[in-house]
Design goal:
Elements (H helix, E strand, L loop, with lengths): L1 E2 L5 H5 L4 H7 L15 E2 L5 H7 L2 H4 L18 H6 E2 L4 E2 L1 H13 L12 E4 L2 E4 L9 E2 L10
Parallel strand pairs: 1-2
Antiparallel strand pairs: 3-4, 5-6, 6-7
Length: 148
């Protein structure tokens, strides 16, 4: 899925989105790449709507392992979408998913929940819940491991 960003005059003067507009007026820049999306959200779309169409279906599969991943250009709104804004009373996808997950788990007292928060930044993996590991790990040192 993809969401259209707010390109208001205030945002244009403080945002890296200027590059998008520059490319639009640069006829010498050509691209044969095609991009396909399951859904396109408008700029007035709420986090609740994004959650219902994207992450909500993952909640039932979380017990078997699922990932909700935000990717995009700096300033595109990843943090707002995933964390929300307490000042605006807008919950992000993390809070909405946790609410649904704990509601689902309340019917099964034998299950436990373990959570990890990692950030990949400039080729480094950061454990966001352990400040001692904040300086990161090189991505090439992380291995997949089967826990079954």
């Amino acid at each position: 899925s993809v969401q259209v960003a707010d390109l208001s005059p205030e945002k244009l003067h403080s945002s890296p989105f200027k590059l998008i507009l520059l490319c639009y007026f640069a006829p010498w820049i050509r691209s044969d790449h095609k991009f396909y999306f399951d859904y396109v959200f408008g700029e007035d779309c709420s986090n609740e709507e994004v959650y219902q169409r994207t992450a909500s279906p993952l909640v039932q599969h979380m017990l078997r392992g699922a990932t909700c991943f935000a990717y995009g250009q700096t300033g595109a709104g990843k943090t707002h979408t995933m964390l929300g804004s307490s000042s605006a009373g807008c919950r992000g996808l993390y809070a909405l998913a946790a609410q649904d997950l704990f509601s689902y788990l309340s019917s099964s007292p034998t299950l436990s929940v373990f959570v990890s928060f990692f950030e990949i930044y400039c080729g480094q993996l950061y454990d966001l819940l352990d400040h001692r590991k904040r300086w990161g790990y090189a991505i090439n040192h992380i291995y997949n491991q089967d826990f079954n």
